[in-house]
Specification:
InterPro entries: Aldolase_TIM, Alpha-hydoxy_acid_DH_FMN, FMN-dep_DH, FMN_HAD. The chain has 345 residues and is α/β, with parallel strands linked by helices. The chain has a single domain, classed as TIM Barrel (Alpha-Beta Barrel), CATH 3.20.20. The strands form 3 sheets. The chain has an 8-stranded parallel β-sheet. The chain has a two-stranded antiparallel ribbon with strand order 1-12. A two-stranded antiparallel ribbon has the order 2-3. The longest helix is centred in the C-terminal third of the chain and has 33 residues. The chain is globular and about 65 Å long. It starts with a helix and ends with a strand. The model has no long low-confidence stretch (mean pLDDT 96). The protein binds flavin mononucleotide (FMN). Flavin mononucleotide binds next to helix 13.
């Protein structure tokens, strides 16, 4: 799936969606929705030659879970605004494509319906303003079959016009969130911001659920190191899709530093602005074990439901196989070992 095809998905989503929904999904910290992708574009490759016959293999594992390829779906709220069945469709696509999805705290779909689709999934959590409910919800996700907890540590306060904020959307079902809490539990947290997490949340969530904890939203080697020392099993290098802070470095700028700081003691993943196979290849070659796509999957869901998301995942993976072959490396670990990628300066 080329960059142009992803852009066409975005335009099909724009045609199908109310303007306020489209604008919410597109929003970034500084109005630029191409800045992250442009930074991935700046990665340069040093193709490898004279290594004999090449066998391309995209299969990998993430925290022990086998996936057919390293393109996973990011946890995103408001998927029912893209398609009435939201994450049910996304999970169906992930299962068919052989990959994993993140499920947002703010999903409007019960965990059991997502789990039924058969794709592996990680539950994404914030620290809720009523702290005890954070663990209640994470335990529910674990009981429903989540295989890891994604603890999001970036707090985004997007500056969008009031009518673009999901809480003010006119369509009730589209703005539903937190449905895996009971109505009483939901009322306790309604309208209140999440709490900024400290290092202690990593062990608390791990102990509450018995699952590995992956910290999502790290952009510095020192933070990654502290997270791993506190028990994190994985790190997602992410700017929340350029939604965190205007003027922030891009995810790709932080990736090599985080990989070095973690020193193989945890898995590293990346997201934000990944729009085509060469970006996936860049992330793998810089040490990411797998990546997440966010908005492209959301747009594909709006444009074509689960089949659309599957076409996106399979298309990006097909292109990744070709890019690996063209680069002269068969696998992600070959790409890393060959120092295939030169990060942007
Ligand atoms: C509409 C939307 C909703 C999101 N909701 C969440 C969320 O609930 N929790 C979370 O950790 N990240 C959330 N994210 C961030 C994604 O998980 C991911 O980091 C980001 O979308 C990746 O960048 P990309 O969209 O450029 O691929 C959201 C992103 C978007 C666009």
């Amino acid at each position: 799936m080329s960059r142009g095809e992803v852009a066409r998905l975005r335009e099909r989503a724009r045609e199908r969606l109310p303007a306020h929904v489209f604008e919410y999904v597109r929003a970034t910290a500084d109005g630029s929705d191409e800045a992250e992708a442009a930074r991935w574009d700046e990665v340069r490759f040093r193709p490898v030659s004279l290594r004999g016959a090449l066998e391309v293999d995209t299969r990998t594992t993430v925290l022990g879970t086998r996936i057919a390829h390293p393109v996973m779906v990011a946890p995103m709220a408001q998927q029912v605004a893209a398609h009435l069945d939201g994450e049910v469709e996304t999970a169906r696509a992930a299962a068919a494509s052989g990959t994993l999805l993140g499920v947002s705290t703010n999903t409007a779909i019960p965990f059991a319906r997502i789990a039924e689709q058969g794709a592996p999934w990680w539950f994404q959590t914030y620290v809720l303003p009523e702290r005890d409910l954070t663990y209640v919800l994470a335990e529910r996700a674990a009981a429903a079959g989540a295989s890891a907890i994604l603890l999001t540590v970036e707090l985004t306060a997007l500056r969008v016009p009031p009518h673009v904020e999901p809480t003010s959307w006119p369509d009730g079902p589209a703005r539903a969130r937190l449905v895996n809490l009971t109505p009483e539990e939901r009322a306790r947290v309604a309208g209140r911001p999440a709490i900024g997490p400290g290092l202690e949340e990593i062990a608390r969530l791990r102990d509450a659920t018995g699952l590995p904890v992956v910290v999502k939203g790290v952009l510095r080697g020192d933070d990654a190191r502290r997270a791993v020392d506190a028990g994190a099993a994985g790190i997602v290098v992410s700017t929340h899709g350029h939604r965190r802070l205007a003027g922030s470095i891009a995810a790709v700028d932080a990736l090599a530093e985080v990989v070095e700081a973690v020193a193989g003691e945890a898995e590293v993943y990346a997201d934000s602005g990944i729009r085509e196979a060469r970006h996936v290849l860049a992330a793998l070659a810089l040490g990411a074990r797998a990546i997440f796509v966010g908005r492209p999957a959301w747009w594909a869901l709006a444009a074509g439901g689960g089949d659309g998301v599957r076409a996106l995942l399979d298309g990006m993976t097909g292109d990744l196989r070709l890019a690996l072959a063209q680069a002269g490396v068969g696998t992600a670990s070959d790409a890393l070992a060959a120092r295939l990628a030169v990060p942007p300066s």
